[in-house]
Amino acid sequence: MSGAAARERSRTMTDAATGAATTAAIQAASGGAAERPLTFGAVVRQSRARLPLIGAASLLGSLGTLALPLALAAAVDAIAAGGDARIPVAIAAGLVLLGVACDLVESTAATTCTADAAARLRTGMVRRLLGAPHRIGRFDTGDLVARISAGAADAAHAGPSAVGAVAAALPPLGSLVVLIWLDWRLAAAFAVGLTLVALVLRLFAKQTATAALHYQAAQGDMAARLTEALDGARTIAAAGTLGAETRRVLTGLPALAEHGRATWRALAAAGARAAVAGPLATIGVLVVAGFLVAGGRLSTGELLAAAQYAMMGAGLGSLTGIVAAVARSRAAVARIAEVHDLSAMSYGTDALPDGPGSLAFREVTVRAGDRVLLQDITFTVPGGATAAVVGKAGSGKSTLAETAVRLRDPDSGEVALDGSPLPALARSDLRTAVSLATARPALAGATLADAMGPGRPRDEVRAAAEAVGAHDFATRLPAAYDTPLPEVPMSGGEAQRIGLARAWHADRLLVLDDATSSLDLLSADRIEEALAATGRTRLVVTYDAALAARADLVVWLADGRVRATGPHDVLWSNPEYRAVFAR
Ligand SMILES: Nc1ncnc2c1ncn2[C@@H]1O[C@H](COP(=O)(O)OP(=O)(O)OP(=O)(O)O)[C@@H](O)[C@H]1O
């Protein structure tokens, strides 16, 4: 991936995290509750309200299927003996109708159950993602969308497919029981064939599970690449790399096709093996039954019934479909579990003590995997002061900004506001005290007013909009502040103003990460003055030397460490410091 694309992606993730935190702040739901890990069995249990109906319909259908050969046998024997076959024929017809009715009930209930389960899984995943802004970055957006859409749909079949698997096992087992009842020798011949069928199914289940897991992972991978490419579509068009990007997005296509073919190969192989194992079981039963009829120990009707039970029990048809559904569902549940089991950002219970909004970083280290993003960062911004955070691209400024508002937690060290470590603070206290505005804010909410001040009274939203120069823009819209957010056309600068209005409401600390970079200098200066007049503490990530010069303190970052802190005028004598602003 190019450096530009990597930055683009990193920004998208930051925006997603910012949006997640916004939503987390809007919703007062408590985070951090430990929940059980998601497993196939757990998804089955979540569907338990609807499973009895599916199970009852399947069971009744299976029993009807099992009874049918006996009813037919009775009819044949009655006809052969010149008796009245009307009752067994009527019973057989009733059993056929029962089977149809059970199928209808089962498929309707299974559809409702699957739809409910998919909705529940999707809601759970979205809630967890939004509740874990500090962990969201480990997933690619497209991959997440694939898990939430196709993945949840596959996983949602867990309940019906588990019940279906149990129900599908009933005819072979029931056949075995009936054959024992007819004659144990029939059952022994059948059991040999059934064991072969079971081995075929077991192998098929293993192969299908592996193929399904790989297929879904490849799907997620391609979706991730596509989302990245769509994010950077303008860059790609401008760079003239359309062909290369298209190839990159579709890189996984051969693998996807291969995993799809593997599923079909497994199915074909199972079919071929079944073509041997199934008839073997039937032939075995028929041979034994032939001897028994010849010896007068079995009637003609019972011979017919034995043959039907042997075929029913050894038939793989419906079993392969159910085994494949279970395998797909298990694979999807495993992928969803990675999202489901994200621990939500936990909040403390402490109230924020009174104070001016002083911010302290104490030996803060932040890592991403093996990589150290920030190391031993220590500085203090006195309450009401402005600190500029400067440094070359990639020096860790945005990471520091996110850590200051607790979108990330340090791996070691501590960030404190007015002496209180951020993780100890109650969610509402923390989120009303601090806010972050970024260069590309992720705006959330139904209307423009929601985006500017989630849950805030209109006069506060308007005051914030006026302070950041977004009021005129809002009043020009068809429904002003009530304009639905998706219908608000906005430039980069206007989006930044909306993001600033949203951040404005924090009452102690505002962190601005390049948040006025798309505004003209005069507008940016006015916003700066308005912010300064509020007396709130500001941490401003910037490449603007004039802004750094006006700050009370500059924190100069290099390679994730504090290179120096001090007034801009003093640092300016260092040519390397000046080089940070060279552009
Ligand atoms: N989740 C992550 N995993 C791995 N590396 C990361 C992650 N997040 C950030 N980085 C890397 O950490 C470094 C610091 O990133 P950061 O965004 O904080 O830099 P920055 O100083 O704000 O850069 P810029 O001015 O270009 O926005 C970069 O090299 C970035 O690629």
Automatic annotation (TrEMBL):
Signal peptide location: none
Keywords, in A-Z order: ATP-binding, Membrane, Nucleotide-binding, Transmembrane, Transmembrane helix
GO molecular function, one term: ATP hydrolysis activity
Gene3D superfamilies cross-referenced by the UniProt entry: ABC transporter type 1, transmembrane domain, P-loop containing nucleotide triphosphate hydrolases
InterPro entries listed in its UniProt record: AAA+_ATPase (IPR003593), ABC1_TM_dom (IPR011527), ABC1_TM_sf (IPR036640), ABC_transporter-like_ATP-bd (IPR003439), ABC_transporter-like_CS (IPR017871), P-loop_NTPase (IPR027417), Type_1_exporter (IPR039421)
Domain ABC transporter: 359-582
Transmembrane stretches, start-end: 53-75, 87-105, 162-182, 188-205, 274-294, 306-327
PANTHER family per the UniProt record, alphabetical: ATP-BINDING CASSETTE SUB-FAMILY B MEMBER 10, MITOCHONDRIAL, ATP-DEPENDENT PERMEASE MDL1, MITOCHONDRIAL
Protein name per Swiss-Prot or TrEMBL: ATP-binding cassette, subfamily B
Organism: Glycomyces sambucus
